[in-house]
Design brief:
CATH architecture of the largest domain: 2-Layer Sandwich
Distance between the termini: 37 Å
CATH topology of the largest domain: Uridine Diphospho-n-acetylenolpyruvylglucosamine Reductase, domain 3
Structural class: alpha+beta
Strand order of the largest sheet: 1-2-4-3
Number of domains: 4
Low-confidence stretches: none
CATH class of the largest domain: Alpha Beta
Shape: globular
Mean pLDDT: 92
């Protein structure tokens, strides 16, 4: 009699790394927000790329779906299993190579957290260009899979601009190691770029070779208050393309007030809308910041941080948003890219739409305004109100010329709206690529496509 799939997986990984306990699986089958839940048959934790490949072969041959999980910080239900899946966790792929200070690069396992990578880079006087509030749990593999952006995107770009090499386990169980020691390598297809942003549908990223950056000698941070978004956007537009820009973040005044009330985080300055600005470079940029803000229509004096402690206090106003949006239970989240010119109208129209569908809900709009990448979180929105509001909000985003997904990916939550951002021909081409790599469609089957 042939052994069961769990037994065969135990033979590959050892019994300790194949979990079938119902309570553990239940906890692993809910998304980061707590709104969406699925069902899994087993959890596996490979410790190497070879083990990942072996697990994929066994699951493919058994006809069992696999959902890949990293730090499980997906906000679009991208790690929620829908087919009684095997959950493949990258949590043991945590190797951190030596920092190459000459070439400014480092190779890490897919399960390394952003915070751990930041510490390794900082120890050698360098920095990693992508930062986000979930840095302590978000993994490098997951961030590459969704092409995450975050708080420093306006200066350093998304994950795709940091990735210079990948290790990938393909759905057939083969391994691809795409690395190069030269800066200009244009031989053949750019396979690494194909897997960045693919959300684990084409293969499992097991290791990443990353670009690092010098640490700026000087940094100045400010939070400015505005009475309206039109004035804030005008100031942001003037700042975003300057050479010294390091961060440009929108903070909703409602969020700042809730952070002050519930978490004792001081509101840095008055205003219905706040703009966090950070400049960084090789010289003191205080005067440049003052010159840039001279003509801005501010509500009052900006709060300025010159030293590290003062800068961290100002950043609290932005990073406390992650706690604020969870005050009233799981929020309803929208990750959207918009042209800067339509952001004021979208803020007004989306607030009206929320009021129409959920009268007691609180819309909180924040995010990376330098890129037009904003996060609309609807607090106090029940599941009975969600269905109609979600579809209506997707239509509103498209009507404003926006993209229904920016840095969080499509996951399973937004797959029905893929056609709002991509043409039929685009989607057909993506399906062709998916079928070429994964003919049976067993890998991350709930993600991206209906």
């Amino acid at each position: 009699m042939s052994s069961s799939l769990p037994e065969r997986l135990q033979a590959i990984l050892g019994a300790a790394h194949v979990v079938t306990d119902a309570d553990v699986l239940d906890g692993r089958s809910v998304d980061h927000t707590g709104r969406y839940r699925g069902k899994a048959s087993a959890l596996v934790r490979p410790g190497s790329a070879d083990e990942v490949a072996a697990v994929l072969r066994e699951c493919r041959d058994a006809g069992v779906s696999v959902t890949v999980q990293g730090g499980r910080t997906s906000l679009v239900a991208g790690t929620v299993p829908e087919h009684d899946d095997v959950l493949l966790s990258t949590e043991r792929l945590t190797s951190i190579g030596e920092v190459d200070v000459v070439e400014r690069r480092i190779r890490v396992g897919a399960g390394v957290t952003a915070a751990a990578l930041q510490r390794a880079a900082a120890a050698q006087g360098l920095l990693f260009g992508v930062d986000l509030a979930a840095r302590d749990s978000a993994t490098i593999g997951g961030m590459a899979s969704t092409n995450a952006g975050g708080l420093r995107t306006v200066r350093y770009g998304n994950m795709g601009e940091q990735v210079i090499g990948l290790d990938i386990a393909l759905p057939d169980g083969s391994l691809v190691h795409r690395h190069s020691q030269v800066r200009a390598d244009n031989t053949g297809y750019d396979l690494a770029s194909l897997f960045v942003g693919a959300e684990g549908t084409l293969g499992v990223i097991t290791g990443v070779d990353l670009r690092l950056h010098p640490v700026p000698a000087y940094r100045v941070t400010a939070v400015c208050g505005f009475a309206d978004l039109t004035s804030l956007v005008a100031t942001g537009r003037a700042l975003r393309d300057t050479e010294s820009i390091a961060a440009l973040e929108l903070i909703d005044g409602r969020s700042a007030a809730l952070a002050a009330e519930h978490f004792d985080v001081p509101v840095p300055t008055a205003g219905d809308w706040l703009l966090l600005i950070e400049l960084a470079g090789d010289t003191d940029l205080t005067e440049r910041l003052a010159d840039t803000l001279a003509d801005a229509e501010l509500c009052g004096e900006p709060a300025v941080g010159m030293d590290n402690a003062a800068q961290q206090r100002l950043w609290q106003a932005r990073e406390s948003t992650a706690e604020v949006v969870g005050l009233f239970g799981p929020p309803l989240k929208f990750d959207v890219s918009l042209p800067l010119s339509v952001i004021p109208a979208f803020a007004s129209d989306s607030a009206a739409l929320v009021a129409e569908h959920a009268a007691d809900a609180i819309p909180v709009l924040f995010g990376h305004i330098g890129e037009g990448n904003l996060h609309l979180n609807v607090l106090r929105c029940g599941t009975e109100q969600e269905a109609h509001l979600y579809a209506a909000m997707m239509k509103l985003i498209a009507a404003h010329g926006g993209n229904v997904s920016s840095e969080h990916g499509v996951g399973s939550r937004k797959r029905a709206y893929l056609g709002m951002a991509r043409s039929d021909a685009d989607i057909a081409a993506m399906r062709t690529i998916k079928a070429a790599f994964d003919p049976t469609g067993y890998l991350n089957p709930a993600v991206l496509f209906d």
